[in-house]
Amino acid sequence: MNRILVVSVMMGLGMAVSVQAQEECPRGTLDKQYCDRNGDLVADLPLDESKWVDPKTIIFSYTPVEDPAVYAKVWDGFIRHMAEVTGRKVVFFPVQSYAAQYEAMRSGRLHIAGVNTGGNPVAVSCAGLVPFAMMASKDGSFGYEMEIIVPAASDIQSPADIKGRTMAFTSPTSNSGFKAPSALLKSEFGLVAERDFKPTFSGKHDNSILGVANKDYEVAAIANSVLNRMITRNAVDPSKIRSIYKSATFPTTGYGHAHNLHPMVAAKIKQAFFTFPWDGSDLQKEFKKEGKFISIHHKSDWDVIRKIDAANGVTYDCK
């Protein structure tokens, strides 16, 4: 079922594959328009310099959220900093869905993106995302946990009680919103979607959290990093929610650039991330546990996520 869901999502992206002859090269899970000659599992910069993108205006997006306008303000100071470092205009592009974000990068309309944990392998394989940074606390620690939540007054006391119920996930590409809980429910509790419980999809972590708080959903799998930010903003009343399961720690949103971005532009973008002054910024106010960006390596840092995908029978089909 999981493979079918992911394939269906990717079919819905409307991603057109170039009709020109594709180069013969190592690719691994990457789409045929990309190459991976160095084996780092991400798309290489094209050998043909005429295919490098050197934008006058750099487009940046953050992972889809309930209220994009809120995050446009949160990222405003960072956007100004990047404009100063790169010497170019930088625009924040609010996306409404994961599929829209991947399609925008694949089609060349998006140059930098913050992609959710579970979506990173999909964006890498299908949209040419090259992840390079992640938020971390000042001491370098990072991560979040997947939690399964229920309305506070629910009679569901543990994941075993989900049997026979309807459980809300976010989207098929989300790690904490679908892939991790699916694998854990199966391995630890013998529960399989459609057989033991009915799955439904809310689209976003925010929707799932609010749905549980308002008793629209019986149970939901969410990223507690999103829940904590919503509680801090008073967007949800924590007394209306109860957690019945907490996972091990996962890496957070991975930030990356398009594979064909001019290397000089990509270097300036990375410089902007790693020199951003956090203290007193709106980013610090929103992401309270974080204090800097750290370097990431997709091959090693997302290994656990790819293993969860493999356990779920997920493949990164791009069309």
Automatic annotation (TrEMBL):
GO terms for biological process: transmembrane transport. Residues 1-21 form the signal peptide. It comes from the Bacteria. Pfam families: Phosphonate-bd (PF12974). Keywords: Signal. GO terms for cellular component: ATP-binding cassette (ABC) transporter complex. InterPro entries: PhnD. Belongs to the phosphate/phosphite/phosphonate binding protein family. This is Phosphonate ABC transporter substrate-binding protein. It comes from Candidatus Entotheonella gemina.
